[in-house]
Amino acid sequence: MTEIIENLNQLNSQVVKLAGEDKLLEAEILAKQAINLAKALRLTEHPAYCDSLNNLAEI
Q1: Of 21, 30, 47, 52, which one's alpha carbon is 20 to 30 angstroms from that of 7?
Q2: pTM of the predicted model, to two decimals?
Q3: What average pLDDT is seen over the chain?
Q4: Which contiguous run of DSSP H or E holds residue 34?
């Protein structure tokens, strides 16, 4: 499970980086992937999921 959370956190970091580079479409795609991953693994109570939602909202 730890590896999955790390993967989710990496996706979130990439989203922030891409958004900072004004690559909003790519950032949006990754943010949605992170959200779908968390949902599929029933991690919707985890802070990394909340970060993913927040990232998408900020894009």
Answers
A1: 21
A2: 0.91
A3: 96
A4: helix 24-40
